[in-house]
Amino acid sequence: MDPITTTTYRLLDASIDPDGSGDLRILVNGESIKYITVNSGLYPSEDLCFGPALPDLLPSLPTGDWNTATISRDLSSGQPQFTAVQHDELPGIQHVWHPTRVDHLELQFKKKLRSNVHEVECNVAEQSVIAKLARFSWEIRILEAETKAYQWIE
């Protein structure tokens, strides 16, 4: 008999509009980050922002190698379903000025200072450091400008 594999996930970030549409960023099985766009009218917006409710609320996560997906209403059943499941090349900071790179999954989050700013521990520093993250693609432009400013200061 094959062992039953259980998929676990944790809500990292949510950007949800009052109509229930928006974007979720989740950590799956502690090893991969997935971005899910939710179309409007499927769920109450407050439910989408409550991480512990998501496993019972959302359809089962798709299998396979994917990092972005959309949840839409199935036209025949009327139920929410995953659509447009794909593996996209995700955008990132292009103007990189510092040689140190740290994988997000290697960070140990200690304290949330702002929605995208955290005190973290990682293997490249002997003490806690501040990490600022672009949680969603629209935040990259802001961090891109900020990294240019850090280079000018240096």
Characterise this structure.
The protein is built from 3 helices and 8 strands. The strands form 2 sheets. A 5-stranded mixed β-sheet has the order 1-2-3-4-5. It has 2 domains: 9-86, no CATH class; 104-153, no CATH class. The chain is elongated. The chain is α+β, with helices and mostly antiparallel strands. The protein has helices spanning 45-48, 54-57, 140-153, and strands spanning 9-16, 22-28, 32-38, 68-73, 80-86, 108-114, 117-121, 129-132. A hairpin with a 7-residue loop joins strand 7 and strand 8 (129-132).
Provide the β-strand percentage band. 25-35%
Strand order of the largest sheet: 1-2-3-4-5
String of helices and strands: EEEHHEEEEEH
Helix tally equals 3
Broad shape: elongated
Structural class: alpha+beta
- Gyration radius, to the nearest Å? 18 Å
How many separate domains make up the residues? 2
Amino- and carboxy-terminal Cα gap: 60 Å
Mean pLDDT: 89
Helix content: 10-25%
Number of strands: 8
Q: Give unreliable regions as ranges.
A: none
The biggest sheet amounts to: 5 strands, mixed
